[in-house]
Design brief:
The complex is a heterodimer of chains A (170) and B (369). By secondary structure, chain A is mainly alpha-helical. Chain A contains 8 helices and 2 strands, in the order ββαααααααα. The radius of gyration of chain A is 22 Å and the shape is elongated. Chain B is α+β, with helices and mostly antiparallel strands and 369 residues long. Chain B has helices spanning 3-6, 10-13, 46-61, 79-87, 93-96, 133-147, 182-186, 190-199, 231-259, 261-277, 283-298, 307-316, 319-324, 332-346, and strands at 24-33, 70-73, 103-106, 112-116, 122-129, 155-156, 160-161, 173-180, 202-206, 218-223. In chain B, a hairpin with a 5-residue loop joins strand 4 (112-116) and strand 5. Classes of the chains: A mainly alpha (170), B alpha+beta (369). Chains A and B meet through strand 1, helix 2, helix 6 and helix 7 of A and helix 6, strand 6, strand 7, helix 8 and strand 9 of B.
Amino acid sequence: MLCCACKEKPATVHLTQIVGDKMQKLDLCEDCAKLKGVNDPTSFSLADADVLFGLGASQEIEQAAGTETKCPHCGFTQADFKKSGRLGCPECYTTFAEGLEGLLKSMHKGIRHIGKVPEPLRESREKADRLKLLQKRLAKAIDDENFEQAASLRDEIKHLGSRGSGLNVT
Amino acid sequence: MDIHKFLTPPWETAQRHGPHDRIVMSSRVRLARNLKDAAFPGWAKKPERIRIFDLVRPAVESLPEMKDAFSEAMDNLSALDKQILVERHLISREHAARSTGSGLVMSRDELFCVMINEEDHLRMQALRPGLQLRQAWSAIDLLDSELEQKLPYAFSNELGYLTACPTNLGTGIRVSAMLHLPGLVLAEQINPIIQSVNKLGLAVRGLYGEGTEALGNVFQVSNQMTLGENELTIVERLDKVLSQIIEHEENARQTLMEKKPKVVYNHIGRAFGILANAHSISSKETMNLLSLMRLGVDLGLFPGMERALVDELFILTQPAHLQRSLSDKLSPEERDLVRADMMRDRLKNVSRPMVKRLEPPTGLDKSAN
């Protein structure tokens, strides 16, 4: 069996992992295993394998992005991601958002953060959530031709937007 | 600062107790955090890594938890020092490989350790003996809340804490426990257990050794998913699963003693025989045999001997710790001789395992918790 990363040397390191109903297998030669850090079982899991080797889900990132996208913030590219499985900077999540979505879906419980929010950002996050909700209700009110409600929702949105500094939506 | 003067001696570390510590050796919660507007450490150029390190280090040092902390840049630590920190589970192997622009800050009691510029700008962990996941989470949550007042984190309303690797995105949390499971291994029940735990989206791996082997019957269970659930849900799920694993391990031990006592006595007796009499022994074999002796202590076969002795030897016989106790640099073969000498010496006053138990099986002892 040949190594699934370099496809040159015989594979000597074999990993199998079952998560949910999905079985993942990885066969690597010693050099590639070392290179990718697979020789350290404490820090490696096959969830990382997806990222590292572009198996399965991570192929979506290529399809979605098509030609070479470059992060305007740090200069990181698709190819760099394929090589390391790590992103370049926090902004990369915006740059590569489209391609990452499928990957995140396959890897996590959901694709929206539920959990701790840094206290300095808590207010702006709540505001953003509230704003989103109001806009949704406004759209529905307009659809329903409930203009009275729409007007009051519009006022509320205006009021919310004028309070404090701008929105901190990433 | 000298790391060896700072670190708690292994005999003292081995004395730390926590709930269910006959099976759960330690609990750990780690958070990954990054600063906004800065490249992740793996992509940042050296000057930027140094800039971040110089920014983060004083912020971490100023936390109340870090009073009298050990704080050092990785390039000021020798390869041996780093390896010792890895063997104590205080830093990751990945972090040990880093040098300029990376560092660590560790609290006086070693219960908090913050790695700076590992894969993320910040990897902070709280460690507790025994099964104390909730306590570890509250502790690191508090430390993180203090730090977020001082450092601007990279956070997105949609995706949460932004991390270098998408596998840590969202909460950035990794909750884990180190388990000693000799009963399940001897009873050959470990594989089905691992598989069912995997199905719950949790990872199980051997803590020592390469690939899938689990030296010393020590396993680490941790969460895989970090996005789409809150921290407490993740902590509680793991806690629940661990309680079940503990129960299975206790049952396995009890069943073994009822149905196959000879098998158990044979394993433990041989382990003691080799450890107390060998003149050359590898760290691998030592770990596997110490695991069986630990089981023997739990089963009451070594009256008068404390589990702490086994746990201390577990730390002391690992390569870097062993090398550290000697002045000359030794080859692995020479280390095997020294290790065996140490083991014979430390076990010389331990009586050989009893065959007839004096007390009721400790497997039934739920008073520990």
